[in-house]
Amino acid sequence: MLLIGESLNVISKKIGRAFKERDPKPIQEEALFQKEKRMDYIDINLGPAKKDGHELMPWVVEVVQDVVPDLPLALDTSNIDAIEAALKVVKPVPSGTPHIINSIMCRPERYERMVPMAAEYNADFVALMWGPDGLPRDENERAALCVELLYFANEAGIPNEKIWVDGIVTPVNIQQPQAISLMEFQKMIPDMAPGARSTCGLSNISNGPPDHLRPILNQTYTVMLMKCGMESIITDPRDEQQTAICKGERQDVVDLIYGMLDGNEPDRASLSKEMLDYAKTVDVILGKTLYSDSWLEV
């Protein structure tokens, strides 16, 4: 599974200050750290960046590429002018892997301007299943949005292989049925959009629960989405266990969760504490256990 590092983000106090003060050092340290932690892409997230995004985004891109020229970037801001300014200065990586626009919503006022931009600069893009009415209610609404946006992109000359579908992850503690809906939608993508790629903001699944519970939720849901065909995740490079799982180094965890999704209930009395925690977390995400912050203690 490909990993897109999420921590070069304006919501970080350290990084946000560096963006504001145009201080390259913390930004470059974070970029180098993400490379060391085996991220495949670096996401540069400016948030809305309404005021000066068109100046800030190209500056950050150049600062990052000065020290990490070999990793492709995901350009992440709702400011369309900032995205275009970055595309004008971003350099190709030696591998030839395209950079990614993260993201284009399924709203005509967004995609009618941004899709031609992706085509002009030969960028991949994340197709975000956020429509005119906001978050889709279920996998069928996600599918309808996906068909609309990918059809428009195909008509603009962008093949499915350059489109990363993001069905949107939501917090399990307040929107648990959406976790299952996204899994069902993920399974639909190969038939609905052959060749299309996929990604998601994985850590949204744990947005709200206490910090000490976030890793087990993130890791468990990652494996569940992997089984449904998810190709990549936007992830925390500091979660080394999650990276190990995604890089194929924790097959025991994958086997347990895949088995449970196939209906094979493990002998819980024989499981280690670590593996039992994963089994309990699968039950929470699937709605077999009512969410509470104490689910691992039950």
Question: Can you describe what's shown?
Answer:
This protein has 298 residues and is an alpha/beta fold. The chain has a single domain, classed as TIM Barrel (Alpha-Beta Barrel). It contains 11 helices and 8 strands. The chain has helices at 13-21, 24-36, 53-67, 80-89, 108-120, 139-155, 176-192, 214-227, 240-246, 251-261, 273-285; strands at 2-9, 41-47, 73-77, 100-105, 124-128, 163-166, 197-198, 232-235. Strands 7-6-5-4-3-2-1-8 form an 8-stranded parallel beta sheet. Strand 5 (124-128), helix 6 and strand 6 form a beta-alpha-beta unit. The two termini are 32 Å apart. Residues 1-272 form the Pterin-binding domain. This is 5-methyltetrahydrofolate corrinoid/iron sulfur protein methyltransferase. Belongs to the vitamin-B12 dependent methionine synthase family.
Give helix and strand order, one letter per element, not per position. Answer: EHHEHEHEHEHEHEHEHHH
The number of domains is 1
Mean pLDDT comes to: 97
Total beta strands = 8
The level-1 CATH class: Alpha Beta
How many helices? The count is 11
State the CATH architecture.
Alpha-Beta Barrel
Largest sheet: 8 strands, parallel
**CATH homologous superfamily label:** Dihydropteroate synthase-like
**Coarse structural class:** alpha/beta
Shape: globular
Poorly predicted sequence stretches spanning 5 or more consecutive residues: none
How large is the radius of gyration? Answer: 19 Å
Identify the strand order in the major beta sheet: 7-6-5-4-3-2-1-8
Q: Beta-sheet strand percentage? A: 5-15%
> Percentage of helical residues?
40-55%
Ends apart, CA distance between termini: 32 Å
Instruction: Kindly identify the CATH topology.
Output: TIM Barrel
InterPro entries: Dihydropteroate_synth-like_sf, Met_Synthase/Corrinoid, Pterin-binding_dom
GO molecular function: methionine synthase activity
Family: Belongs to the vitamin-B12 dependent methionine synthase family.
Protein name: 5-methyltetrahydrofolate corrinoid/iron sulfur protein methyltransferase
